[in-house]
Amino acid sequence: MASEHQLQLAQSAAACLDAFFAAPNLFVLPAAGHDNTGDQNANEVPEALVTAIQRTRKGEADLPMLLPFRRAADERVTWYACARDKPGERAVRADLDAFVGPGFADFDVSTVPPTDADGLFTKHGFHAVRFTANRPTFDKQIVEQWCVYWALLQRKPKRRKLEHRTFAQLRAALDWALLAKNEAEASAAVSALREQHGLSAENRAFLDIRIAASFGRWDEILDHENFSHLLKLRLPPETFGDIWEALYETWIRPQEASGDPERLKKVFETQVRPAAGHLLRSLGRSRRPAALKSFVLHELSQTRPAVDLCAQWLAELGDDAFGPTTAAIGGLIDALTPKHGFDAACEDMNLERYEQAYDLLWSLDDGTDVLIALLRCAKEIDDPERAGQTVGRVQASDSSILAAVQQTRTRLLSDVTRLAASRPPEDLRAQLLVEPEGERTAANNVVEFWRELANTDALVKIDDAMQQRLVQSMEDEVLSNSGTFDALLPVWFGWIIERAKPHAPFMPLYEQLLDTMWVRDSYGESELDLIKQAALHVVRAGPTPEQYNQLMERLQRIFDAVRSPQSMSWALDLADALVIAPSRDEQARNQLLVAILSAGSEFFSRLADTQKALLRLLASEMPIPITLPTHEVMNVDQPEGTDSEARVMIYSLDSQATRRAMDMLKALSPKLKITTNCDTECTQRLRQSSRHADFVFFVSSVATHQAFFCIKDALRTPDALCHVQGTGTTRIVETVMKQIQAAR
Predict the structure, then answer these.
(1) Is residue 301 within 8 Å of residue 294, measured between CB atoms?
(2) Taking the CB of residue 711, how many other CB atoms lie within 10 A of it?
C-alpha cells in the first residue's frame, strides 16, 4: 500500500509528465499496445526510457529518468536527466560524465538553451540536468549508454541514506532507543554522535553509563574504567542519578526486605559510602529516588543528622520508599532531635554537607553572614530553583544588608544569579521555543528539568492542568522542527507510559502520544515497540467503546504503513496482547487481527519459527477462519537445539504472555522442562525454581527489584541469568530458543 507521501509524488509526477509531453514538445509516449516489431515513430520516446518514466509516474523517487524534448523536426533534441532532489541531481550529473561523456554530449548549461520544459520541472519539484548531443546521430548512443547506466542503477543494492542530524536529534534518538530497550539502535545513536559531533572521553563515559543504567547492568557502571575519575567531576544530573542508582541497586536494595534500618545503614557505611566518594558532597538538582534514599541513609548515619532534611526527602519519596523498612526509617527520623543555629550550619558547610546547611540557614533571620552562607550553599548545590529563591531573598533584604553582600561577595552573587537564570521558564510553550542549536545551554536546562521531573510519580505530579498543557503542546509542536520538543518527547513517553501504570484520567495523553507518533511518520523498531506499549496502556486503562474503536483504526493504519515481513514480529506481539486484553469492540479488534494474520499468511515462508508458532496459535483462537499454508515449514526447517532437555524458568509479571510463551516453547522444543513465575517478592518457590533451573529468563520490563535480587542470589552460576529485552510472547520465545541453541 502506497504511503501518503508516495501518492503526493505520483500526483505531481503525473501532472509534470502530462504537461511535458504536450505541445510544443513533439515527443509522445508509446501507446499501451505498441508493437515492438513494427517501425517506431520518430517522435515516440525510445522504449528503453519508458520503464523509468512509468516508474516515476507511480511516485517512485529513488532513481532518475531521461526525457527528450524537441519543438520542431529540424531542431536538436534537448535531453533532461531528472531527479527528485538536489543530491540526486548532482549524482546523475556526475554519472552522465562517465557513461555519456563530453565526447557525445554538451553538458554546459550556458551553451544549451533552455526550453519550455524548464519551468515545469521547477513547478513540480524535479531537479533536471539539461544537455544536448554534439551531433544529431549521437542521440542513439545517448539512449544506449543511458540503458547501461539504468541497468546498473537497478542492480545497485539499496543502502541506508546517510543523514546528518543535529546533536539534539541524535540525543533524542538515543532516548527513544533506550526507552524501547533497543540496545542496537542505542549503540548506533552513540556512534553517530561520536562520528558527526565528536565526543570527549568524559561524554562517552556518561553515555556508556546511561546505556548500562537503562538495561539494569549496575555492575558494568561500577566497574567502568573511569569510574573513580568521574566521581571527582561535577556530573550531569542524569549521570549523577545513574551512578547512585547503580550503587543503591547493587548494595542497598537487596537489604530492604529485612525491615531493619540499622542493617541498611551499616551496608551504606561499609559499601556505598566508600564507593560514592565525592558524590556525597551535594544532591544538587537530582530527584532520582535512589539518590534521595542514599542521602537519607547517609544523613541518618551521621553523628548529628539533619532531621528536617531527612523528613523532607522521605516525604518527597512517598509511601513505601524503602519497602518493608519504610516505617522503621520514619521512626528513626521522628526519634531524632533537630538542630538549629548558624554555627551548626557552618559546621555542615565545612563538612561539605550543603543541603543540610542550606536547610538550617533558611530558617534564620536575614543577616550579611547568613545570606552570604546561603549564596555559597546555593552555588555548591547547583540547583536553579534554590538559587532563584536565594537571590530573591537577598534582593528583598534590607538595603544595608544587600549593599554589604554586593560589596563583599560580588562574584558569588553574580554566579548564583546566573545559575538562577538557567532555570527553565514556567510556561511549557516558552520552554519549547528554546532551540538547542541556537541556545544550547538553555535547551539543556529545559531537558534536564523534565528528565529529573520524570523520575517522580506521574500519577502524583500530573494534574489536570499539566495534562492539558502537555496535550496542547504535543498538538501544537508535532509538525514543527523544534529540537527541544524532539528531545522532550521520549522523556514524556517514558514518564507517562514506561514508568506509570495505566490510568484512566491519562487517556487523552495516551491518545495524543499515539497521534504524535502517527503524524511524525517514523516507524523504526524502537518507535513500533513504544506504539505497542502506548496502545496497551489505552486498552488496560478502561477505554470507552468509541476510544477503543479509534485505537484499532489507528493501529490498522500504522500496520498498513509498515506491512512487511520485517515488522511481523511486532505485529504478532501486538495481536497477541490484544487477544489477551479486554475488548470493547470485537468487530474493530477482529478487523485488525485479520489484517495481521493475513499478512502473516502471505509472508509465512519468511517468518521465524517462533513467529510461525504464534501465528498458528492466534489463527486457532480467531472466530473467523484463517487459512495458513498447509505444508509444515517448522518441521522442514527445525532450529538447532530443539531436542534440548534443559530446565528453563521464565520470570515475568505478565503471566498471560509467559503462559503463551510456554505453550509455544513446548511445541517448538517438546523436551524442554519449563516453569514460570510471577511472584513480586522473594518467595521460597521463586528461590527453588531459580536454583534448580539451568537458565532463568528474566523479563526486566515487567518485573520487580525484589524478584531480581532473589533470583540472582539463588542461581547456581551467574551465567544462568538471561535478560529478555522488551516485552511480549515472541521476545520471550526468541530469547529462550537463541540461548538454548547457543548452549549446545
Answers:
(1) no
(2) 24
For the chain, which residues make up each domain, given as ranges? 4-155, 236-338, 339-423, 638-742
Per DSSP, the residues of 77-108 read: PEEEEEESSHHHHHHHHHHHHHHT-TTTEE--
Residue 340 corresponds to which cell in the numbers above? 538549629
Assess contact for 264 and 309: CB atoms under 8 A.
no
Give the span between the Cα atoms of 329 and 312, in whole angstroms.
13
- pLDDT at res. 430: 56
Q: Read off the pLDDT of residues 289-346 as tens digits, 9 standing for 90 and up.
A: 888 898 889 888 888 788 888 888 888 888 888 888 888 888 888 777 555 678 888 8
> CA angle, 116 as apex, 113 and 120 as ends, to 5°?
120
| Euclidean distance between CA atoms 58 and 13, whole angstroms | 8
Three-state DSSP class for residue 128? strand
DSSP for 313-342?
HHHHH-TTTTGGGHHHHHHHHHHSPP--SH
Report whether 523 contacts 5 (CB < 8 A): no
Strands 647-651 and 127-133, bridge-based pairing: unpaired
State yes or no: cis peptide before 436, omega within 30 of 0. no
Phi, psi of 96 (to 5 degrees): -65, -35
Strand 647-651 and strand 695-699: the pairing is: parallel
Q: Give the DSSP H or E segment for 697.
A: strand 695-699
H/E stretch holding 32: none
Q: Which residue has the cell 511535458?
A: 20
What's the CA gap between 144 and 643, in Å, rounded? 59
User: Residue 97 carries which side chain, given as an amino acid letter?
Assistant: D
Helix orientation angle between 483-493 and 167-179, rounded to the nearest 10 degrees: 10
Cα 649–chain centre separation = 30
Cα gap 442→436, rounded to integer Å: 8
Q: What's the one-letter identity of residue 698?
A: F
- Kindly provide the b/e burial profile for residues 605-616, where b requires at least 16 CB atoms within 10 angstroms of the residue's own CB: eebbbbbbbbbb
Q: For residue 575, give Cα distances in angstroms to 72, 578, 643.
A: 62, 5, 29
Query: How many CB atoms neighbour CB 299 within 10 A?
Result: 21
Measure the CA angle with vertex 156, ends 151 and 159; round to 5°: 150
- Of 687, 677, 684, the C-alpha closest to 716 is 687
Query: Which among 653, 523, 659, 496 has a CA at the least distance from the CA of 579?
Result: 659
Q: From the options 3.40.50.10850, 3.50.50.60, 2.60.120.560, 3.90.226.10, give the CATH code of 638-742.
A: 3.40.50.10850
Question: What is residue 373's three-state secondary structure?
Answer: helix
**C-alpha grid cell for residue 240?**
549523577
Among the listed residues 25, 6, 131, 118, the one whose alpha carbon sits nearest the alpha carbon of residue 73: 25
Tens of pLDDT along 586-631? 888 889 988 998 888 888 888 888 888 888 888 888 776 666 665 4
Query: Model pTM?
Result: 0.56
Instruction: Give dist(CA 705, CA 524) in Å, integer.
Output: 30
CA distances from 435 to 182, 463, 478, 549 (A): 27, 27, 15, 38
Nearest-angstrom CA–CA distance, 428 and 328? 40
Chain centre distance of CA 252 = 29
Residue 431: DSSP 8-state: H
Q: What does the alpha-carbon distance between residue 309 and residue 371 come to, in Å, rounded to a whole number?
A: 19
Identify the H or E element spanning 652: none
Q: Which of 429, 466, 425, 467 is nearest to 446 (CA)?
A: 425
